[in-house]
Design brief:
Strand content: under 5%
Distance between the termini: 39 Å
CATH class: Mainly Alpha
CATH topology: Helix Hairpins
Number of helices: 2
Length: 143
C-alpha cells in the first residue's frame, strides 16, 4: 500500500476520532444533565412532601392538602419520565463509546500498517545498499 494512502487513512481516522470524541463528550454531558434534572425533581417533590407534613401538623384545609398532593404527584410523574430520558442518554453514551472504539481500532490498525511499511522500506533499502556494497567489493577485487 502506498505510504501516502496509509497516511491519508490515518488522517481521516484521526478526524473521525476527534468527531467521535466530541459526540461522546456531548452524550456524557447530556446524561449527566439528565440525571441532575431527575435528582432535582425528586428533591423538589421531597421538599414539598416535607412541607405538607409540617403543615399537616399545624392544620391544613382539605383542598390545600389535595392540591399539594396533586402537585407532588405531578412532579413525581415528571421525574419518572425523566428516568426514561436517563436511559435514552445512557444508550446514546454506549453507542458513542462503541463508535469511538471502532474508529480508534481502525486508526491503530492503519498505524501498525504504516510502521510495517516503514520497516519493509528500510529493509529493502538496506538490502539494496548491501547488494551495491557487495558488487562494489567484487569489482574492487577484480573478479
Amino acid at each position: 500500500m502506498n505510504p501516502s494512502v496509509i497516511q491519508l487513512l490515518i488522517d481521516l481516522a484521526d478526524q473521525k476520532a476527534k468527531a467521535a470524541s466530541i459526540a461522546l463528550a456531548t452524550a456524557l454531558k447530556n446524561e449527566q444533565s439528565t440525571k441532575e434534572k431527575s435528582n432535582t425533581l425528586y428533591q423538589f417533590a421531597n421538599q414539598y412532601e416535607d412541607n405538607l407534613s409540617q403543615k399537616s401538623l399545624t392544620g391544613i384545609s382539605i383542598s390545600e392538602y389535595r392540591n399539594t398532593r396533586q402537585f407532588i404527584s405531578n412532579i413525581e410523574k415528571i421525574a419518572l419520565q425523566q428516568s426514561n430520558y436517563i436511559q435514552f442518554a445512557k444508550d446514546a453514551v454506549s453507542q458513542r463509546q462503541a463508535e469511538f472504539r471502532e474508529i480508534e481500532k481502525k486508526r491503530l490498525t492503519y498505524e501498525i500498517l504504516q510502521k510495517k511499511q516503514i520497516k519493509l522500506s528500510v529493509a529493502r533499502a538496506n538490502a539494496i545498499e548491501q547488494t551495491s556494497s557487495d558488487e562494489l567489493s567484487v569489482m574492487r577485487k577484480g573478479f
